[in-house]
Amino acid sequence: MDTSSPTYLVLDLTGTFAFALNGALTATRIARLDIVGVITLGMFTALGGGIVRDTLLGALPPATFQDWRYLAIAAGGSLVAFVAGRRLDRLAIPILVLDAAGLSLFAVSGALKGLELGSGFGQAVILGAITAVGGGTLRDVLIREIPSVLTSGLYAIPALAGALIAVAGDRIGVADLPSAVAGAVLCFLIRMYGVHFDVDAPKPR
Amino acid sequence: MDTSSPTYLVLDLTGTFAFALNGALTATRIARLDIVGVITLGMFTALGGGIVRDTLLGALPPATFQDWRYLAIAAGGSLVAFVAGRRLDRLAIPILVLDAAGLSLFAVSGALKGLELGSGFGQAVILGAITAVGGGTLRDVLIREIPSVLTSGLYAIPALAGALIAVAGDRIGVADLPSAVAGAVLCFLIRMYGVHFDVDAPKPR
Amino acid sequence: MDTSSPTYLVLDLTGTFAFALNGALTATRIARLDIVGVITLGMFTALGGGIVRDTLLGALPPATFQDWRYLAIAAGGSLVAFVAGRRLDRLAIPILVLDAAGLSLFAVSGALKGLELGSGFGQAVILGAITAVGGGTLRDVLIREIPSVLTSGLYAIPALAGALIAVAGDRIGVADLPSAVAGAVLCFLIRMYGVHFDVDAPKPR
Lengths: 205, 205, 205
Description:
The structure is a homotrimer.
Chain A: H1 6-28, H2 35-57, H3 63-66, H4 68-85, H5 92-116, H6 121-142, H7 148-151, H8 153-171, H9 176-197
Helix pairs in contact in A: 1-2, 1-4, 1-5, 2-4, 2-5, 2-6, 5-6, 5-8, 5-9, 6-8, 8-9
């Protein structure tokens, strides 16, 4: 997929917005953080995955810094979440849903950008998963949580599945939009299934 | 500003030295760290911001690895702090002042390097702030503190203000030295004001 | 050393395998991690150092993403450790030995890759040490331990020593294999000596 196409931009910018809301809502639950801390955590969460992806691809400066819309959407989403978070009592559900949405959109956009810049099939799938889990992992490290990608069985797996669908669709010549949407929807559904039923993969011992 | 100019080098190397002292003094307060841990934390703190800046700019290898003075000053500053730290009873104040100094110098040098390598106005300001908070954030993650950039209302804001002054000065044609110094001084004063009066930005709820 | 030479590839891929086993075994000791978490931590540990090295060298995309063997060995080693870890009661010793092996191999391979891509003598040594400690530091940050490179006196020092021997051997014209092996063996012996006798460098106060 051409990364300047509207489909790609909508995927990537919507993922940025979802992660900005997610990161900032997560921050509002931590007592010591004020508005600057909330917006900063939102921006790290929103932009982290894309920055890691573009660094690994050698596509520097990252899209985040070349296109002002990423910074604007990340800051705007964080600000919205700061205001909304003060009015919401129950944040656990929206935080999980937004995280799943960001995960899904970035898995697809990361994989497709990898393909466009010349990654092989397997590498593009891995790169999609890294893009998807990058922002949330950075968020968790900054607030001293063990990252979801380590503790939650169905976190890396749906990202890999979504990226795989998007890459496979591209390779067999399906049009951009349906294969991207199919990948993102599959990732989202697997992730929400895991969250809802608290599914984990097999544990050691 | 030309990044090979003496003004730029003095800013960037002095920031490196301030963060090396700061990181190493922080390390001496953690009981389990020996001299290698102290120097390593000093070097991470001193070099982290510049490495992140140069990676985001695609200016690789980073200046840190192309110019031996960065490594020498980071290691030397850390060693000085290791020796001095054993003789000082009260480290809290010097640690805060050195952190504010590094923050101010890197906000300006990061923004100006961004401009020189082609970043837009807004991106250069953000890049200056990332350079400024990068080393301290890495330091805090490594010693398992929640980073200052999240918890302290006046940490990212003075960095953005200092970077803004430096970039604006460059754009309206003020000479390098006065606009850089004005940006750094402004950042330092706002940061120390925040530390002294324990000012925070508005909090959620 | 030519980084496409068999000697270099054996060093780098064996280091990847050792760190994959180490990271995954470390993960099996953390109660909350399931198989995906174990493999993910193994892959972060195995691939982290090389990704940091290639990013600092501007050699992007990193070797990890250009050569499928790195991903395969990292995933395979992690899977082996997941299975084996369920059968082993005492993991502390293998974890330490594998960490020392990865440290030694990556110190040498990182330094030699730095030299080949044009780093100076001192920079190549530092780069070797960063490659060596990178994966383990990432591992420790993700599981919220203070990294070994800060707490253990003989962790950065053996990496620097091993890298120094490899770089010096290359410069004075010793053949690739003996100088690389000598550097790795020296690093491994110093590290195991430090582990066995619990040696630390001087501490503050």
